[in-house]
Design a protein that fits this description.
The chain has 21 helices and 22 strands. The protein is of the alpha+beta class. The chain has five domains: 1-52, no CATH class; 54-171, 2-Layer Sandwich (Beta-Lactamase), CATH 3.30.450; 184-286, PAS domain (Beta-Lactamase), CATH 3.30.450; 372-545, Heat Shock Protein 90 (2-Layer Sandwich), CATH 3.30.565; 571-687, Response regulator (Rossmann fold, 3-Layer(aba) Sandwich). Strands 11, 12, 13, 14, 15, 16 and 17 form a seven-stranded mixed sheet that branches. Strand 6 and strand 7 (198-201) form a beta hairpin. The termini are far apart.
Length: 695
């Protein structure tokens, strides 16, 4: 308010009053502007104070040119520029454009150049990029820029807000890493809303179920129809565990494209601070390999138990066969010539029974054989030739043996038996096709064929299809047929001894069990692929060795002849708990002129040796006896006389046993049932001082 006062009446004329009004109006205008400026200054101070508190700065630039290069003059309005860039505002004003271009991280310059192109077209742009401060620190900024365009469409001014988003980017990167880890997890992961609506699925879920994430999202959990009735039966327990324990875990079956996949699933609750469920997290793991490994372990344990049983049966059976075969041989020596034919037939049958026991021992991995560097090619060709000669002419035998086949370490007799048993199994399967069985060959109009192939396999490049199998070099033998195939139930039992699908009298059920025993004993692996009506393929993987000179050994069968009187004035201690075995061996030895002292167990044998230690020239010991076993008896006899000569008999054994006996100085080890000639020959050589392991 402006006040003009005079002490004289009528001192101001009308013109003076008008002048005073104009002066007052001008003063009011000036005062108003002063108040506005003061308010504006106060607002600017307030704005500056607020802007200085955040990691941001406001800038503007007068644009001199955009083509071919940008030329601008910077103005910075807030001091936050130094906190972000490490450069004081005054230096920024002086160096401006060149300084800003230098600070842009080399890896982001291409992206910033694209943003400048958009600004040149008059577009608003927000860019996130890195800058490198003069002290070397790298920071992330979000630069939002608004261009001002003149009437001709040229950009004349830029106004921008630059925010420091380094921490925000770190959080985003951490979130992205976490998201990528979840997405690439080995387990399928599903995030459900409290009402069991799918909110998120990772990549593994889609790979496992075949349901894309966008198709799963928004559906209720049960609408995905992933599981069989097994899970539906568990619903009550699942809900109970979720309510009481907050999680559930268990195994079930996932259905996909008609196939069943065994899975392990876990469901757990994510709760808010008040305990209410915010999300459900479900994880699903494919355990097909684990289930297969568990089944393989169960099968291995079952076969091991059956092998132990088979070894026990073989031991007892060999004792019985020793008595039977031995007495047949003795009776044949006394019988008239016209009866020899019958005794020969009986002897052959007994020998077949002995071969059956050997197969049992091979399955039980108790028959060590003689391992040596071995070329499988000749064995395969010889065996398949024999199979072809004894097979129906309507069944072809196809053989593929490469010339550069690697060498394996194995027993040639067992390798021949391995190939023979697999080929015979294929031949018998194809024989069913000739009588109208549903076979792949007839369905595909193919000739019936047994296919035998062998080749080298480098497991460093192509790992074996068995959990835990080692790397290395292997020889792969494949024997297949295009016959009727097998059901899953049959496949699960084919390696069990005495299991057969053949008619009574047409198979022993030991062929494939023996194959399994031989393969395992040689450190190899075997698997079978078969489906009903699709044929069968056996694959055998045997470790290859470095030796390049394979060898093959044969066996010798001694003729049946009367024992010679070679044992005169020689005394033999015979220790065996089986009466029939002891009786047979004693008769043979006495017929050969030996004096025989008998004992029915190890303890009696040691006592007999104590009484006659100076008379006994050789001791024949059974390995497995009650009261005192063969090895214990051997040790006790050696304590009485360290130079005692010993021959060991047994119906069952393993490689480690033979090594122990050899180290103990046992002259010979004889397999029950021993032939008369082999028995006498081994005893004669032992008395002569010749030592030679197994006979």
């Amino acid at each position: 308010m402006v006040s003009v006062q005079s002490y004289r009446p009528f001192a101001y004329c009308r013109e003076d009053l008008r002048c005073l009004e104009r002066v007052a109006g001008m003063a009011a205008l000036v005062l108003g502007r002063l108040r506005t400026q003061a308010a504006l200054h106060k607002a600017e101070e307030r704005f500056q104070s607020i802007a200085d508190m955040v990691d941001a700065y406001i800038w503007s630039a007068e644009v001199k040119a955009t083509h071919p290069e940008w030329k601008v003059d910077y103005t910075v309005y807030t001091s936050g520029v130094e906190r972000i860039t490490g450069v004081p505002p005054e230096r920024f004003l002086q160096e401006g454009q060149s300084l800003w271009l230098q600070m842009i991280h080399r890896g982001d310059r291409h992206r910033v150049a694209k943003s400048l192109e958009r600004l040149a077209r008059g577009e608003k742009v927000t860019s996130v990029y890195r800058i490198q401060r003069p002290d070397g620190e790298v920071r992330w900024v979000r630069d939002s820029v608004v261009p001002t365009v003149d009437a001709q469409g040229n950009v004349v001014r830029l106004d921008g807000l630059c925010l420091d988003v380094t921490e925000e980017q770190k959080v985003a990167q951490e979130r992205d890493r976490l998201f990528e880890a979840v997405d690439r997890a080995a387990e399928a992961i599903v995030l459900l809303a409290p009402a069991a609506v799918v909110e998120y699925t990772n990549k593994t879920f889609s790979e496992l179920t075949g349901i894309p994430a966008d198709q799963a999202r928004g559906k209720r959990w049960h609408e995905l129809c992933l599981f069989n009735e097994d899970l539906n039966r568990q619903q009550r327990k699942i809900l109970h565990d979720l309510r009481t324990r907050g999680f559930w875990t268990g195994r079930t079956i996932l259905q996909r494209d008609g196939k069943s996949i065994p899975i392990e699933m876990t469901a757990s609750a994510v709760r808010d601070g008040d305990g209410s469920v915010r999300h459900w997290v479900v994880t699903i793991r494919d355990i097909s390999e684990r289930v297969a490994l568990e089944e393989q372990l169960r099968q291995s344990q079952k076969l091991e138990a059956l092998g132990t049983l088979a070894a026990g049966i073989a031991h007892d059976f060999n004792n019985l066969l020793t008595g039977i075969l031995g007495n047949i041989e003795l009776a044949a020596l006394e019988a008239p010539a016209e009866l020899h034919e019958y005794f020969d037939d009986a002897r052959k049958v007994a020998r077949r029974a002995a071969d059956l026991v050997r197969q049992l021992l091979a399955f039980a991995r108790k028959a060590p054989g003689t391992k040596q560097p071995l070329a499988l090619g000749p064995i395969i060709k010889e065996t398949t030739k024999l199979v072809a000669e004894t097979t129906d002419r309507r069944i072809a035998v196809q053989v593929d043996v490469p010339p550069d086949l690697w060498v394996v370490e194995g027993d040639p007799v067992q390798m021949q038996q391995l190939v023979m048993n697999l080929c015979v199994n294929a031949r018998d399967a194809l024989a069913d096709c000739l009588t109208g069985a549903d076979c792949r060959a007839t369905k595909n109009n193919e000739p019936l064929a047994i296919r035998v192939a062998v080749g080298n396999l480098d497991a460093h490049r192509d790992p074996l299809p068995f959990p835990g199998a080692p790397k290395g070099f292997f020889v792969k033998l494949t024997v297949g047929d295009n016959g009727p195939g097998m059901t899953e139930e049959t496949k699960s039992r084919i390696f069990e001894p005495f299991f057969t699908t053949k008619e009574v009298g047409k198979g022993t059920g030991l062929g494939l069990a023996t194959v399994y025993g031989i393969v395992t004993q040689h450190g190899g692996y075997i698997r079978v692929n078969s489906e009903p009506g699709q044929g069968t393929v056996f694959e055998v993987f045997l470790p290859a060795v470095q030796e390049t000179t394979p060898s093959v050994t044969g066996t010798e069968t001694l003729p049946l002849e009367a024992p010679k009187q070679e044992g005169v004035k020689r005394t033999i201690l015979l220790v065996d708990d089986e009466d029939s075995v002891r009786s047979y061996v004693a008769r043979v030895l006495r017929r050969a002129g030996y004096r025989v002292i008998e004992a029915s167990n190890g303890r009696e044998g040691v006592k007999a040796f104590q009484r006659h230690r100076d008379e006994i020239d050789l001791t024949v010991l059974d390995l497995i006896m009650p009261v005192m076993g063969g090895e214990e008896t051997l040790a006790a006899i050696r304590e009485l006389r360290p130079d005692a000569r010993v021959v060991m008999l047994s119906g069952t054994w393993d490689a480690s046993l033979l090594r122990r006996l050899k180290q103990s100085g046992v002259a010979y080890f004889l397999e029950k049932p021993p032939e008369m000639g082999s028995l006498l020959q081994s005893i004669r050589k032992a008395l002569e001082g010749t030592q030679a392991g197994a006979a």
